[in-house]
Write a structure and sequence with these properties.
Helix content is 51%, strand content 12%. It starts with 12 loop residues before the first strand and ends with a helix. It contains 13 helices and 8 strands. α6 runs antiparallel to α7 (192-220) and α6 packs parallel to α8. A 6-stranded parallel β-sheet has the order 1-8-5-4-2-3, with helices on both faces. Strands 6-7 form a two-stranded antiparallel ribbon. It has 363 residues and is of the alpha/beta class.
């Protein structure tokens, strides 16, 4: 489209502090007194004790349900039947799929969403969409919503205590915003929301180049720091702001489409979202026939941050069969995906050649 017909911008409120879990109940209580919490078991082990203590202190009542591991239509429907009457807020506590599940549930029930991320692995707490999968973890589609998260509560120390690989995956997912936004906004007139989305993507890119190495070192030491705060804000707030401002003009493109295709391979379910997206960026660069100098700069960044540069580093220790490659390509090119945001038509032959090119880069 030539203009942006809808701008989601940012959440109603985004709070980022060290040890924020200890006062989270006060913030949640400003918006409601009865909440339904969707969380994962590991996420709840990280955050549950401090979060419930703060809610009890603030007089907020809560009901907790653990999700079953995938953001699927079936899971959202199951959870919807468990929400008590009188619930005022849906609260998602966890990583991307947990929060996307809570987000879709909040939309279906017309209730506001509070996001409490335990990992900085995707922009799910801020973005106005949910990525939907089958119960087996294969990509289906993504649903864009016309309402933002009400409240995002980010505890730097909580995220610093998580395994550092998740932070690296978040860096991979976020640096993709720059490459994909350049592609999806290509040829669009320079109206201000799209310009803002592009600038937000540039801020993500520059912040990650400047601070990722230090942030990862700090996360390894489980240490809150300025560098870690900067990277977290890039992964959550500014990454979500890219499409929030630009919407369809600043959506994901080939990198996320390749991620979607890789979900068809069982071994890829052990790779994190941002790791698959990072690999997808390289495939996008191959499709765009970017200069090798630019590719090498990104590969150096991947080496510095531990991001995967080939399928083996993603955990695939064998060659894809012809049928598997065809299925990866079919899903990646699906109209329900994001390959259509590329500024040129991507054929199955071109995508296959780009995948082989990426593998040759690190041969």
């Amino acid at each position: 489209m030539d203009g942006v017909h809808f701008v989601a911008g940012t959440p109603n409120a985004y709070i980022h502090e060290d040890n924020l879990l200890d006062t989270a109940g006060e913030w949640i209580g400003k918006y409601g007194s009865s909440v339904f919490i969707v969380t994962g078991r590991k996420s709840w082990e990280q955050a549950g004790t401090r979060l419930t203590a703060s809610m009890e202190k603030a007089g907020v009542s809560y009901h907790i349900e653990h999700y079953r591991g995938e953001c699927s239509y079936e899971e959202v429907a199951r959870l919807g039947k468990l929400v008590p009457e009188g619930t005022e807020l849906i609260v998602g506590v966890g990583a991307g799929k947990v929060i996307d599940t809570a987000k879709k549930l909040s939309i279906d029930l017309r209730l506001p969403l509070v996001a409490v991320p335990t990992l900085a692995a995707t922009c799910a707490p801020v973005s106005n969409l949910s990525v939907m999968y089958t119960e087996e973890g294969v990509y289906i589609d993504f649903r864009v919503f016309y309402r933002n998260t009400l409240l995002v509560l980010v505890d730097t120390g909580l995220i610093a205590g998580a395994p550092v690989r998740y932070l690296a995956a978040g860096i991979g997912d976020t640096i993709a915003k720059w490459y994909e936004t350049l592609a999806s906004s290509s040829g669009v007139s320079g109206h201000l929301p799209t310009v803002g989305g592009i600038q937000a993507a540039k801020i993500c890119y520059e912040t990650l180049l400047a601070h990722s190495a230090q942030a990862l070192e700090d996360a390894k030491a489980k240490r809150s720091s300025k560098a870690l705060q900067q990277v977290i804000d890039a992964i959550f707030l500014f990454s979500g702001l890219v499409a929030g401002l630009g919407e369809d003009n600043c959506r994901s493109a080939a990198a996320h489409a390749v991620h979607n295709g890789l979900t068809a391979i069982p071994e890829m379910h052990h790779a994190y979202h941002g790791e698959k997206v990072a690999y997808g960026i390289l495939v996008q660069l191959a499709l765009e026939k970017r200069p090798m100098e630019e590719v090498k700069e990104l590969l150096d960044f991947y080496t510095e941050t531990g991001l995967p540069a080939n399928l083996k580093q993603l955990g695939l220790n064998r060659a894809l069969s012809e049928d598997e490659m065809a299925e990866v390509i079919r899903i990646a090119l699906s109209p329900q995906g994001t390959m259509g945001n590329m500024p040129f038509e991507v054929t199955s032959e071109a995508l296959k050649e780009a995948i082989f090119t990426v593998e040759d880069w690190s041969a």
